[in-house]
Give the backbone structure.
Amino acid sequence: MSTRFLAVANRKGGTAKTTTAVNVAAEWAAAGRRVLLVDLDPQGHATLGAGARPPRGHPGPAAPLAEGRALEPLLVPGAEPGVWVLPAGDPLAEPACADPAAAAARLRAEAAALGFERVVLDTPPDMGPGLKLGLLAADYVVVPFVPHPLAAVGVGQMARLFYRFATRANARLRLAGLAPVMLDRRLREHRRVIAELAARFGAARLLRGVRASIRVAESLGRGLPVRRHAPRSAGALDHALLADELEMAMA
């Protein structure tokens, strides 16, 4: 089976990108996939949320990949069996990646050679080397968003960036969908924002999303996917269904 690369991205912060990345990776691993979670955000929240514990002084992903170093020695196991993590490095110590394209090509080749079936790329919101690397390496992008009034702005910015990369830098790149998170369909504002985005981008682009759940936030803080922390919660069910939707979108 070929390796599929999914970037989780939004130009707006606070949209549960990391939560989505950690939990989709865990769901795919639970379904029997060999999964690599790549933490491209210098904050390192995906590393912590996935339960990975890299050694002190770990270099982070971008610079070693651009330098052509082997991927396997950099990997750390996550809390979910079957998930391996390429951790973020110390943002004060890690050198900037001067060649995101070279790093992306190396990541794709190394991940495939190591037998990973799914690679989930957690990206930062700023237009720096991490986001560029993620969009250059990815086959698909999912855009999580909180359905608040400014959500359309962040999704619109991400859509423009996506199309720029898809037409100029990465012809493989496809939009897997827009995923509403922290969702409460009882709220009129949430329903209005989702309807606005469906009208703008097409209803087929809107994924079922993830309901608001304190269990999801708790699990990330404990270094566990929500399926481990609270397997019967709404958050666990919704992430399982989201992972299935994304799997179908990437088929």
Summary: Residues 151-168 form the longest helix (18 residues).
